[in-house]
Amino acid sequence: MLFSHSLYSLPLTFTLLLFVSCSPTVDLAHDDPENALRTYRPAVPGVHGLISSGHPLASMAGMRVLLKGGNAIDASIAVLATLNVVRPQMSGAGGNGFFTIYDKTSEEIYSLNATGAAPQGLEASQVTDEDLYRGISAGVVPGLLGGWIAALDRFGTMSFTELLEPAIEYATSGHPIEKSVTEAIKDSQEIFKKFSSSRSVFLPNGQIPKPNTNFKMTHLAATFKKLTETEQRALRQGKSRSEALQSVFNRFYRGDIANEIVAFYEQHGGLFTADDLASYKPIWAKPLHANYRGYDVYSSPSTSRGGFEVTMQLNCIESFDVKSLGHNSAELLHLVSECIKVVKSDVYHYTADPKSTEMPVAGMLSKDYATQRRKLINRQTAGLFPRPGSPMRVGDVAVAARTSKVHFSEHVDPAGHTDSFSIVDAEGNAVACTPTHGSLFGTSVVVGNTGLTFNNGTRIGSTAPYADHVNYARGGQIPILNNSPIIVLKNGQFVLAIGTPGGESIGQTQFQALLNILDFGMSIQEAVAAPRIALSAEPNFYKPGASITMRVEERIPEVITEELETMGHSVQRIDGYSLGSMQGVLADLENGTLAAGADPRRVAYAVGW
């Protein structure tokens, strides 16, 4: 086991000081331009541990674990299970996700892809794009629960039972439902009404829950209890911790819970079979890596495109003197936008399930290729969305050019419904994790009495609308997400753990946050709260020549957007706090201290002790 037990036992007389980022955020850009980076929500200090997640109850669930002596992975499982209860529209055990893990003992970075495949029986030519988006025909095998088990088995120290206690408590006894959840239920109510299993969970008494009312998820609690009882029974039988965890995995993917899932889909005309569930395995993979100005940046490999986006965007912009241009100047935002376009043209062309294709990974990540592609960038004028390049290098394989035979609608919904969190424990272990349901509540179908909804990874966007594209929706193939939690080291020392939700904007917003920290020296709270941009494409980023719109948070002065428009950008000003919701933990290497930041764009909170 690579993670050491991170905290000593606490005496009963111990007095705890818990720091929470709880004050309202006020960015002063409008009233005080010279101090536009200031914020009234502080970075949260920590000595023994720090957690920043998408909901205060989830952050506190993880902190409860750290206080008991658990490590960063232990706390991650508590956070993930609690997010399933308090942010069910964003992620859950039936969803997918990615972990990037720094193990202090080995000083190695690990990537865990907890992503499931489309059912083997899927024939995309026989369904509509709406079928792939929501409902009984949509979705992929739930990967995240398996990821919980895999991470806990390899790096954790505590029992699965202990770690699910907070989530089971909130699901059984209830918790004050947050406004964004009730709004998501309102947006999804029509499809919920089609299934009694969905109505019973999200439309209790036939009504949309009101914000701050006590909300329960008793069927989900029952599923979680089945899993914890399985672990405890195995331990009583004398099985090892690892064997007990495998028993949990087997019950979910091959036992009675799997049987209930399959029976529900058979009853309603869905495609998932026992073989689909039984064949699932979480994937430990080598993370993608880029060195940016002496910082080693690690993120998720395929089956995520976001890790490629972040690392390649950093390579693309590295030759420019970013700091001299000024933070969020028109010149800098122009460069950021152009780098995003150049990189997305490659990423959308080449990335797919590695079992289904050969990707020119080394070429895509090389500095030489970045130099070649950078030639497309004009410093004064916005360019068109380009064709992909040819990142072939020694050790890579040739990838055939692809045509654009349209099968589904080309229009892609860029929104995503995802969560993210970052944790550092007392021993220096770090986790950045980004779980997701894809769209709101994923498929929006609660599977029987399990309380689970699946990730709708078959939707156009995660899959290509073009029948001859490598990422077209195919049975048994894992679609591409954009989740890309990041860990940064410098000279082998931990610097940063950060991630964000945001669908299409994930790789873009993380790119800007890294520039904020690594080039402009911002604190973690300043970096995640600072205004930013994101590009959208019509009809989509799969298509060269697509029309690109730059969405700009309105806290960026209007004079800047006017300059961008004169450079040829199509600009749309949007609400000042609307792109993503980053959570991160940042080390001050000079002073040997740590602080966490929580994005004010959603209900994210950081806690430390």
Short recap of the structure:
Helices cover 34% and strands 17% of the residues. With 609 residues, it is α+β, with helices and mostly antiparallel strands.
How is this structure best described in words?
The chain has 609 residues and is of the alpha+beta class. Helix 1 packs antiparallel against helix 2 (72-86) and helix 5 (160-173) packs antiparallel against helix 8 (218-236). It starts with 18 loop residues before the first strand and ends with a strand. It contains 19 helices and 21 strands. The longest helix has 21 residues, at 330-350. The strands form four sheets. Strands 1, 3, 4, 5, 8, 11, 12, 13 and 21 form a nine-stranded antiparallel beta sheet that branches. It has a seven-stranded antiparallel beta sheet with strand order 2-20-19-15-14-10-9. Strands 16-17-18 form a three-stranded mixed beta sheet. Helices cover 34% and strands 17% of the residues.
Helix content: 25-40%
Give me the oligomer status.
single chain
Question: Which class best fits the helix and strand makeup?
Answer: alpha+beta
Query: Mean of the pLDDT scores?
Result: 91
The percentage of residues in β strands lies in: 15-25%
Number of strands: 21
Main sheet summary = 9 strands, antiparallel
